[in-house]
Amino acid sequence: MAIDKSNGYxxxxxxxxxxxxxxVHGIGVSxxxxxxxxxxxxxxxxxLGCGTGIPVSMILDQAGMHVCGIDASPSMVEAYQQNFxxxxxxxxxxxxxxxxxxxxxxxxxxxxxxxxxxxxxxxxIQNAAKALQPGGRLVFxxxxxxxQWKDAMTDRDSVSLGAERYKELLTASGLMLVxxxxxxxxNHYYNAIKI
Length: 195
Hints:
Helix content is 28%, strand content 28%. α4 (74-83) links the parallel β2 and β3. The longest helix has 14 residues, at 118-131. It has 195 residues and is α/β, with parallel strands linked by helices. It is built from six helices and nine strands; from the N terminus they run ααβαβαββαβββαββ. It is globular, with a radius of gyration of 15 Å.
């Protein structure tokens, strides 16, 4: 039996696409908009765990950015292609993405990293650092405390490595943590720059 690289999201894709996959004014939108406004127009971005592309890729597109997306759910990738036919999107697991062979000005991973195993999270952070231009930035969400819980949509394990471990990983990968902040839904963000 094949391993589900989508961490259960392919199995609930129809439900996700009908609900959260259409939420243009949801939690975190204002935080993502603020972060994107710090980049010049035409910057290149990778949306890790892009889902349908709404709202993150949508925000990037509206800001005049060039956007690529990856998601491990074939159904999410199909919905993304319908929503953003001009954007390049691939159906890949984040820790195995061929997009990391390119370079980007910004990489965003909203609501994905903690769905991955500890080892996969470390690989994604290392690969993201390599794929960033000098001065490029990575932002991702994960709780500040080391904690494990069941994902509300898939009932699969989620794990946060905690702020101290994420800081260690970022530093070891050549990134500097610039800030941490929370949105109105208490999602915790890590904002790092490639030094």
